[in-house]
Amino acid sequence: MEILDSASACVVSRVIGDLLVDLTQHSNSGRIDSGHEYLVSDFPLTQQVIDSGEPQVVVVSDPDADPAEADLLRRIGFESLLMIPLETSGSSWGLLEVYGDERGFSGADVETASAVAAETARKLEELA
């Protein structure tokens, strides 16, 4: 499995009702100052990923980027975000969020992150 070249941080978040709560994070440059929880309803693209089960990429420089997501990325110092749903027993458990630079993420990056998310979801089901 290839490493995501443009990734510099990641977060695993849990969906609890309308809350998205950061559970764990890793960054090449230290802690991510992203806060601890968000209202999913404040982030339409996040809601779409949770509801559809389909990954999405946000790049700050894209004029069509979701404004709420782009604003948050600017505040926490990243240029792109890849959101991959974590699904257990056919429903949304949370998100794998990968943060990166202005290059964004390629189709291969999405495939790699999706494979990691699928394996993570399998492990979560084993723990349940």
Number of helices: 3
Structural class: alpha+beta
Arithmetic mean pLDDT: 87
Overall 3D geometry? Answer: globular
Q: Return the string of H and E elements.
A: EEEHEHEEH
Give the beta-strand count.
6
C-alpha-based Rg, rounded? 14 Å
Kindly report how far apart the N and C termini lie.
Answer: 27 Å
- Which sheet architecture does the biggest sheet show? 6 strands, antiparallel
Strand order of the largest sheet: 3-2-1-6-5-4
Percentage of residues in DSSP E strands? 35-45%
Percent of residues in helices: 25-40%
Unreliable spans: none
What can you see in these coordinates?
With 128 residues, this protein is an alpha+beta fold. The protein is 31% helix and 35% strand. It has three helices and six strands; from the N terminus they run E-E-E-H-E-H-E-E-H. A six-stranded antiparallel beta sheet has the order 3-2-1-6-5-4, sandwiched between helices. A hairpin with a 2-residue loop joins strand 1 and strand 2. The radius of gyration is 14 Å and the shape is globular.
